[in-house]
Amino acid sequence: MKTIVSPSILSADFANLENEIRKIEPYTTWVHIDVMDGHFVPNISIGVPVVKSLRKITDLFLDTHLMIENPIKYIDAFSSAGADLITFHYEAAKDKTIETIEKIKKNNKKIGLSIKPKTQVDEIKDYINLVDLILVMTVEPGFGGQKFMDESAKKITEIKKYSKNDNLIIQVDGGINDKTAKICIDLGANCLVAGNYIYNSDNIEKAIKSLI
Ligand code: DX5
Ligand code: ZN
Hints:
- The chain has helices at 17-24, 48-57, 75-81, 90-93, 97-106, 150-153, 155-162, 178-187, 196-199, 204-211; strands spanning 4-7, 30-36, 61-67, 85-89, 110-115, 133-137, 169-173, 191-194.
- The protein is α/β, with parallel strands linked by helices and 212 residues long.
- Residues 8, 10-11, 32, 34, 65, 139, 141-142, 144-146, 173-176, 193-197 line the site of D-xylitol-5-phosphate.
């Protein structure tokens, strides 16, 4: 499978989002949207209305990363807003994991399941073959521009061990640059999220291309 780059608009200029999307469109097919609620993570970012507005101006695949408590409550809203993939955190859903997966499926969206650095793959092994994407956080979620955690990336190997799906997307998010991307790809990741590295570079085309 071809490696996907999903630029995170968390590092973009929120006052000029359309322009920020136009900057990446020629070089990628995905865009990563970080939704934070100030409870699951200690930061607040953007929500449903922004997804809805972005849907109107771009055909990029809207990769929506929910860092929110009780994600099941918001699946319908993000689906109607136009998200293509909805990734929720296992730590936020726990005993509602299956129901949350079912709800995303009912909305005909791609399903993503994410784990924070301290969550072990063992805890989600029963769900790996029920979703389209596993997101391995390589920083503590909440902020852009943090340092990549090598230990977390090692979980990629374990996920591959449990997966029976050749098309499973293994995504990494947090501290991705040209060097850490290589570590993740070598371990088996096929989807790279990068915010700071792409949006704070002076050559976006070069930055995106240097990851794959
Ligand atoms: C962090 C977010 C990331 C963030 C990555 O909680 O989930 O998507 O934008 O930012 P960088 O690439 O700067 O580490
Ligand atoms: Zn993210």
